[in-house]
């Protein structure tokens, strides 16, 4: 006589099978991630500093990662560790509960405080990576902006080029006024990486290859210099994500394989696994540029800088944007740095920064150069364009 099973026992058996399937799937994901991470250059023993424990508490529920795009004439993996200025500095905030991702570009010419073995001093924030690699760069962001960044990802031009080529290029709206500088930068990127590309000779929506897109992301002599350059950089990232999501897994996988040898990161297998588990609910929720309100400032030793006006109020706006923090009070450390910058530059403007709290949705951006910073800033000053003769001779055409 055949033995009968109750519905309850069948349910338990089905649940066990389901659990087994899930375990096998995630085990395969772990193996996949482990294999991919073996391609990267890993920063062993990476540690960061935060201003105080209250900062960590207020950012609980968020994962914050710093992305650095390096302006390195040396495109080997060793150049990822230090000695190169960060051409692009992007703070990525991930809301762990709903998957919202927000990006903030810190303008590379922003005047902030750096604290290293030589002491404390103000200079352009992109110098931090050159002076002390990702550790000093991350610590500088944490100290000046009341952040709790514990991880970073750095990539050089070659990695970006290979990833974009692997997905078949990205569609970007190129303006007439950008064509001249775009082709100048294309020649510069070819010279640096040894990767050939044709120029771009027509405006309008163009499918840019890796070299062309990298050159596009470097243009800073139109509109407001570094302000609109960071918009282009975020447009490139958003276009890459959109293209990979629409191209299928095999294309995305190839792009990952091409880029990872040119990546330097503190993220390990477990970190990547935790991020991968939530990938289906990630949503690009907005982006912006920092500082939101600023003035252009120049000195003989530092060249043309972007000075927060003032740092305290900019940090309040930053926390509202990244972490939905209402009525945030900057730490005493940020308040002290604000005094340093204001005393040096003479810019003391205080008062709430009035903005929409959402930032720019790059899914609709056309790279038209509209400033995403506050309209009260000195937006008609062309003080940060390519022609400045600052001490940071990291742009070949400067």
TrEMBL record:
Q: Which InterPro entries match?
A: LytR/CpsA/Psr_CW_biosynth, LytR_CpsA_psr
Composition bias, kind Acidic residues: at what positions?
A: 362-398
Where composition is biased (Basic and acidic residues), the residues are 352-361
Ranges where the record places region Disordered: 352-398
Which keywords fit this entry according to its UniProt record? Membrane, Transmembrane, Transmembrane helix
Signal peptide span: none
Residues passing through the membrane, by range: 12-33
One Pfam family hit: LytR_cpsA_psr
Domain Cell envelope-related transcriptional attenuator: start-end pairs: 85-246
User: Which family does the UniProt entry place this protein in?
Assistant: Belongs to the LytR/CpsA/Psr (LCP) family.
What name is this protein filed under? Answer: Transcriptional attenuator, LytR family
Native source organism of the sequence: Eubacterium ruminantium
